[in-house]
């Protein structure tokens, strides 16, 4: 398929996957999800590719789901956004500049390693819109972060910066602004310098252990989504966001 919203670049055995919908803050709709899925399919299926890097622009990683898409961003192989439910054997590094919010953070949580510029921000603002994180953030955030920080993200909804993310263990490297992609590619090259069979076997072993509780996490997420979809606050939150006004919550 023609890639209009996702730009691909090969750097030796590294595939750089760049979201290029900056005018919409790399919010993910049907087209962007399909192009991401195709890119991750390439990374999974090409034996000459030993590592990948996922990035956005120099000003924004991703604002998550495009609320005008009506939830239409599920793909056959990767689940949401082409990545969230994907079973991978090839390491993937996130290179984050600017905001990674909502589904943007959930994309980061689906990667194996994270490099962030100092101006990067990470957050789950769904509660501010009458929503809940529905792309694994409710169980991957407390897996990657101290549980009280994960609660802060999910309940308060305010973002935190790259330094705090590094201190909490979410981010592996912090760079000066604009340096995240180069540092992520360097990390991917270092991975590629190692024995690929050993790297893949190690990644699969770690993921097998980590994902043991995913089924329960998805069930809990589905219950949370069902609860908010039946609420008046859900409709009000989306309407207020699209109309660029403060929401008027009723608690119903």
Placed side by side, the strands forming the largest sheet appear as 1-2-3-6-8-11
CATH class category label: Alpha Beta
Number of helices: 9
**Amount of beta strand:** 15-25%
Report low-confidence residues grouped into runs of 5 or more. none
Total E-strand runs: 11
Q: Using the alpha-carbon principal axes, give the shape.
A: globular
Q: Find the structural class using helix and strand composition.
A: alpha/beta
Please describe the biggest sheet, giving its number of strands, its sense, and whether it closes into a barrel: 6 strands, mixed
What average pLDDT do the residues reach? 96
Helix residue percentage:
40-55%
The overall number of domains is 1
Beginning-to-end CA distance, first to last residue: 44 Å
The H/E string reads EEHEEEEEHEEHHEHEHHHH
Oligomer: single chain
Question: What is the second-level CATH architecture?
Answer: Alpha-Beta Complex
CATH fold-level topology: 2-enoyl-CoA Hydratase, Chain A, domain 1
CATH superfamily heading: 2-enoyl-CoA Hydratase, Chain A, domain 1
| Gyration radius, rounded | 17 Å
Task: Describe the overall structure.
The protein has 252 residues and is of the alpha/beta class. It has one domain: 2-enoyl-CoA Hydratase, Chain A, domain 1. The chain contains nine helices and eleven strands. It has helices spanning 30-45, 103-109, 137-144, 147-156, 162-168, 180-192, 196-210, 214-229, 232-243, and strands at 6-11, 14-19, 51-55, 74-75, 79-80, 92-96, 99-101, 113-117, 121-123, 160-161, 173-175. It has a six-stranded mixed β-sheet, with helices on both faces. α2 (103-109) crosses α3 (137-144) and α3 (137-144) packs antiparallel against α4 (147-156). It starts with 5 loop residues before the first strand and ends in a 9-residue tail after the last helix.
């Amino acid at each position: 398929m023609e890639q209009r919203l996702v730009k691909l670049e090969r750097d030796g055995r590294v595939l750089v996957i760049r979201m290029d919908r900056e005018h919409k803050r790399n919010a993910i709709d049907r087209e962007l999800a399909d192009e991401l899925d195709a890119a991750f399919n390439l990374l999974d299926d090409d034996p000459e590719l030993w590592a990948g890097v996922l990035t956005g622009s120099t000003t924004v990683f991703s604002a998550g789901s495009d609320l005008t898409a009506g939830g239409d961003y599920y793909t056959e192989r990767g689940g949401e956004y082409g990545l969230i439910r994907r079973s991978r054997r090839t390491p993937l590094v996130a290179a984050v500049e600017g905001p990674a919010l909502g589904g943007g953070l959930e994309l980061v949580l689906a990667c194996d390693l994270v490099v962030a510029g100092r101006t990067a921000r990470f957050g789950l603002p769904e509660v501010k819109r009458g929503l809940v994180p529905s792309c694994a953030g409710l169980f991957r955030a407390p897996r990657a972060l101290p549980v009280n920080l994960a609660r802060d993200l999910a309940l308060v909804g305010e973002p935190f910066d790259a330094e705090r993310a590094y201190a909490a263990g979410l981010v592996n490297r912090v760079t000066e602004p604009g340096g995240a992609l180069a540092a992520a590619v360097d990390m991917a090259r270092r991975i590629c310098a190692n024995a690929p069979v050993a790297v893949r076997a190690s990644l699969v072993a770690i993921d097998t252990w980590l994902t043991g509780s995913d089924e329960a996490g998805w069930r809990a997420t589905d219950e949370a989504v069902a609860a908010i979809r039946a609420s008046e606050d859900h409709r009000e939150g989306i309407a207020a966001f699209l109309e660029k006004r403060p929401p008027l919550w009723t608690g119903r």
